[in-house]
Predict the 3D structure of the following.
Amino acid sequence: MDAAVRSVSSAWVKGIVELFQNFPLDVPALFLEAGLQFESLNDHDARFPPERISALWDLAIAGTNRPDIGLAMPDVVHPASLDSVAYVMLTCPHLLRGLERFLRYLRIVSDAADIALHEEEGGYALTIALEGGGRDVPRARIEFVVVTILNICRWLSGRDMRPLAVDFPYSPPADLGPYHRAFHCPLQFDAPIHKLHFSTADLMAPLPMANPELAAMYDRMAWDHLKRIGGGKASNRIRELVIRRLPDGDPLRADIAREMCLGERTLQRRLQEEGTSFHELVDDIRRELAQNYLTQSDAAISQITYLLGFGDQSAFFRACKRWFDKAPGDYRKCARNSR
């Protein structure tokens, strides 16, 4: 899958602008310098390239001298950033269903984000990675995503919900104050990937605005929106399911087809109509995730091997030689030296 065609919705970018406008920044000028059209924010269907969004964050960091700008306003909620998805989540019976719906319609908000929900001992974990479009993803950009998702969960539940822990794939910064103010929970650095850990009780608590009739209506609206932007492709739904299953090993086409209530032949035919195959799609997903893990985190090679679903490190090494013409460690070193 070509990362160059990925994009971020104008609704999400408006949330970033709301944050930047609280600082002495000339936001329209930042847009111009980042190669973005500020006027496009008025277009509900406008989409922005992820590499330009990263450039925008880099300029804001330089202009404020705040590497932690993504966490600068931890109590501000941006439900409008999720566009129609926020309404679907708001009317779900509980937060777990809301997060599942969020993942189902994630492409409305951004198809430059790889987010997955995993059940784990004691609760659930939401993993978050961003596509850089060939450019390094600033920490502030992804930290803004993490804290925004958490704050929307708090807004939906009507409670000061606190995660069990939050993971960050880098060493702890000198000043942990912004992180403690944003998350109010244990922080775990040098982790494989950004991750929010939630208790089962928090995710299963009833939502105050739960309404099955409205939920069904908003669900149809979100699905129509998804189809309108081309996000209703079978490959996008398969991609989400594959990412969720990767840590368990090689995703099986039969399992994915069963979860989509399709026959294997139907699934394969739909992928062929979109110019790909199940094997090619899984390989593309692994390549993109490997690139993110190796360039955006300090995760050990053994951890990345597990996250990508390879049986052993030798299989991961062979894949990296095929994708990047380099071993994983060499690829990571070259990426860091080029920064």
Observations:
- The longest helix spans residues 139-157.
- Strands lie at 8-9, 47-48, 113-120, 123-130, 165-167, 187-188, 194-199.
- The longest strand covers residues 113-120.
